[in-house]
Description:
The protein has 371 residues and is of the alpha/beta class. The protein has helices at 43-55, 69-75, 92-107, 125-140, 188-197, 211-221, 223-236, 241-248, 257-267, 286-294, 355-364, and strands spanning 8-14, 60-65, 84-87, 112-115, 121-122, 144-149, 160-167, 177-183, 200-210, 271-276, 280-281, 301-304, 309-313, 317-321, 326-330, 335-339, 344-348.
Amino acid sequence: MTDALDDFYAIIPAGGIGSRLWPLSRADAPKFLHDLTGSGSSLLRQTWDRLEPLAGPDRIMVVTGRAHRVAVESQLPGVEDHNVVLESEPKDSTAAIGLAAAVLHRREPDVVIGSFAADHVIGDARGFRRSVREAVAAARAGFITTIGITPSEPAIGFGYIHAADESLDVAGATTAHAVRSFVEKPDLKTAKKYVADGSYLWNAGMFISRADVLLAEIGRNEPELLAGIEELAAAWDTSARGIVVDRIWPTLKKIAIDYTVAEPAAAAGRMAVVPGDFDWDDVGDFASLAKLQSGGRKNNLAVLGDNARILADSASGIVVSQSNRLISLIGVEDIVVVDTPDALLVTTSANAQRVKGVVDALKISGRDDVL
């Protein structure tokens, strides 16, 4: 592809069950395998389609669970076999992204890698690619770079990135700024301050870096974890892979890349951020899914499901139907109804974040049959 970046390799971590979208999202059918936008393509496929013009089809690596291999490869027929990394069990983002970076670094020492979650929704693919190109330029200059989303509202469901006022002097990355700090999800009052301040961006969890720089940062903060990752990478393209994976992978520390790379790199002045002005959503719960499906119009009732049978009178919110049941809603506002063959969820948009608590309770009670 003429637009592809020669030294760039995209990584798609496709893991997690999306517990706040239960019972739609399950362990055997997580949210990235679903079409949540009505486009006809799953979130995973949409992620691939955004990245292919940047990397080319032979330079996209997918990291996913062994149980999802068949589904992932059926949705991404263009993915090369040597670019599918299978996890025997979830070990969070440092192990997933770190292993992909280490394998690619051995194959191509100067490679720039970019990690992009499989389950995000981005409408402006062209704007996204513009931001990625700037982030790659900053990465070439030695920065670990992220793309922060310009806030459209004082959201409390996202973490924030505090950017420095001055832009970095990096060729090809004119909008890049140093990162002062990453901050956790705020309360509404604090979120309003962040948006009014203008120097805070939503943390979308996108990381672009030279592979060697990323691995060095992991090594500074988690040397034992890096040692395990490097041992895995050394065996990855050999006949010893299976034996080494079975021995090493279960021993790896389970920790997010925010804590091993992003936060310490920002504190040391090694982190850059490129503001992204494109629309973005991580569809983290049913409230955000309702907003996405209804175009932000609060009085609308969004309906998701190929054969949904809905009767509604003065109702708003979202209904997700995967059964043949007729669902009638009368005089209810901001309701969430998710109807599947073996589980029914009824809540409100205001309580959508609490769905994860139901999943946690089901785990504790041993009800894995519905997870």
